[in-house]
Structure formats: C-alpha cells, structure tokens
Amino acid sequence: MLLGVILGLIIGILVNALIIWIVGKLNLGLRVSGFGGAIMAAIVIALVTWVITWLLGLIGISIGGGLVGAIVALLIAAVVLLISDRFLSGLEVDGFVGAIVAAIAMAVVTWLITFVLGLIGIAFS
Fold first, then answer.
1. How many C-alpha atoms does 122 have within 13 Å on its Cβ side?
2. Weakly modelled stretches of the chain, pLDDT under 50
3. Which helix H or strand E contains 91, and what residues bound it?
4. For 76-111, how does the pLDDT look when each residue is reduced to its tens digit (9 = 90+)?
5. DSSP state string for 14-43
6. Burial, 37: exposed, middle or buried (Cβ in 10 Å; 0-12, 13-18, 19+)?
7. Coil, helix or strand at residue 75
C-alpha cells in the first residue's frame, strides 16, 4: 500500500516535470534550467498548489466545475507559477501574462500526455 503511494508520487512528479520541461522548451512564458530544474519545479509547484488549495478550503472556497471552475483553476495555476518562480532559481516566468500562457500550455500538454497514456492503457491522474 505505502509502496504504491510512493511509486505513484514519484511517477506523478516525473510526468509533471516532463510537462514543465516541454512547456519550457516551447518558450511560452516559462523557462526551466534542464530536467533537474523541472523536477524541482514540479515538487515546488505541487507544494504551493497544495498550500493554496488548503488555505482556500479553510475559508470555504472551492474550485467548481464548468467554465468558471476552469477559469479559476487557470488563475490559480498562474499564481502558483509566479510564486514558484520566487523559490526556484531554475524556473523563470515572464510575468502574469506569461504565467497564464504557460498554465494554458501546461494544461494542453497534460491533456495530450494523459490522452496518449490512455491509448496505450496506462491510467494517469
């Protein structure tokens, strides 16, 4: 059980690092210094996202579904990128507009990777 959780966490970090690295290579508002920097960025982004989600939950705010939920999630992702930029020397975000563009690109790349993994029978969430 614990081994499965740890393995899932490692795979999740590696896939998210791959997504960050790909978006960084596309020059869409985000730059990362190599795959090691992308791994560190994935860890920091996951931690910052968890803290923001936890704080929003404390004050009774949840991200809904639909178009409004997608816009709120996109704005939170952009803020997470901007905050993570402050903690990591290997991650550079080009202001709020760059963070929005990078967040959209990360969502698209995430969808593509999830789609391809689903085609070959590997579930990823």
1. 10
2. none
3. strand 91-93
4. 888 888 988 888 888 899 999 999 999 888 888 888
5. HHHHHHHHHHHHTTSSEEESHHHHHHHHHH
6. buried
7. helix
Q: What type of residue is 117? A: L
Kindly give, in sequence order, each residue whose CB lies less than 8 Å from that of residue 102, ignoring residues fewer than 6 positions away.
23, 28, 29, 30, 78, 81, 93
d(C-alpha 15, C-alpha 75), whole Å: 22
Q: What is the pTM assigned to this prediction?
A: 0.77
Question: Any residues with CB less than 8 A from the CB of 57 and at least 6 apart, and which?
Answer: none
Report the distance separating Cα 66 and Cα 82, nearest Å: 24
Asked whether the beta carbons of 8 and 2 are under 8 A apart, the reply is: no
